[in-house]
Amino acid sequence: MNAIMIRWILVLLLALPFTIISAQSTTELENAFANANDKQEKMNLAYQLAERYLSAGDTKKAIDYSKQTTDLANSLRDDAMAADGFYVAGKAYLRKRDLRTADNKFQSSIGYGKKVNAIELVVQGYLERIAIARKQKNTSRLSSLSEEAIQFFTKDSNYRKIKTQQAGFQSQLAKLDKERKDLQREKDKLNGEIASLQQDKSQLSEANTDLTQTNTQLQRQRQRIAEEKQQIAEEKEIVEEQLEEEAEKVGRMTEKVAKAELIEEKNRRRIEALEHQQEMDALSIKNAELQEAQSQQFMFGAGILSALLLLLTALFYSRYRAKKRTSEALEKNNKAIIEERERSNELLLNILPENIAQELKETGKAKARSYNQITVMFTDFKNFTRMAERLTPEQLVKELDDCFKAFDLIVSQYPDIEKIKTIGDAYMCASGFSGSRTASDSIVRAALEFQEYLNDVKLKKQGLGLPFFEARIGLHTGPVVAGVVGSKKFSYDIWGDTVNIAARMEQNSEVGAINISQNTYNLIRDKFRCTHRGRIQAKNKGMIDMYFVNRTV
Q: Which residues contact 280 (CB under 8 A, 6 or more apart)?
């Protein structure tokens, strides 16, 4: 019976799952422990710190945090956590070679473990106590502990549980062996791919050298084109000045031509009148003396009539010219007003959503609105301060401008997304204002395109030995309030705890990655492949489930 029990115990110990160590640092855990108000959270953090310090070899702090764990567990009546806390304390005292205290702690761990039927922990406790008894060469205690352990494990319920676990562990071992063989095959395949990549790398290096030479030639061509553009611009200015002078000359000539035509018309009429008079004289030579007075009166009346006709012609022409100039000026002013209105509308739509801009134009103000499900995205560049030190202010602003213009172009492809603002090197946008069911999908796709764009720029910059931007991205979905603030410079913004949590998602993300909350994951999990990161401490928000978005399904 003893041999069988020992074999079961060894199998059980070998199959115990490895403890998953949190990605948080010890300092972050201690800060979270100091700031925690909830007893349950404080107890969990104290246990994590006790295990962390035990692994690091700091037995003093491991004992201190394990004591706080057991005290909090007793106050909360959490026997399972009390058993774990006493076990960690026993391991710490073993490292200090305080065998007596260690044995007492293991005994307490066994007692609490039996209350919650934690078979694995009880096994570990008995093995540690038996080992201590051997070291102390205390045969009576060794015998009594062995009997006590056998009695506990031979109970029907415990025996069945161990058998069930043994079968499960054997199945897991077979599965792990299969996975190990699959991984070995993958490793061999990867080794072949690495060799191929090494060859591709050398070819890329040669291509990069050619590309650098090509870029140098392109820069020279660009400089030459810029000089030619400058020369063309100067020649254009000269031609425009000449055209203005020619236009003035043409204007003056047109005026002279108009006057000459009027004079010619006047002379033509006078000649016609004289010819008519001569005909009349030829027909009435015999009656010349009698009709002399009538001829003089006719000539006087014809002269007055000709003068009136010339005057009316001049007035009509002057009025026509003035009306034409007024019409042209009005048309030009109307065109300028329309262009200014279109520019104003375009500028308003660049900073405000369409419905808000329309409301603002119609009523002069926009009401604040509440939305139940808005997905907010934050981006932030890594090592921005270091980049600022390496680049001139003009170069830094140009790099930021290029990135933000690319982000704006990507966002413009998705009608569901609204750009909110940029804050320094951070970019903020949100989706869901239209109530569309696919709004969360759209903003996650935009985030993937952001990272794809930055990765493409990174590869080009690395090849040229230039600095480049890398970003963290975070998203969260929840309720917000949106509205317009300001009177002279309008600003559309959103407020609420959702915005704060989205910022925490970005702060807890990694470079090149997209970190989302549980709320966002629940909306997009059928469309994208995601990796669960576990519950992670977010500043001022406690433990939050987080996921990395890998790609679309």
A: 295
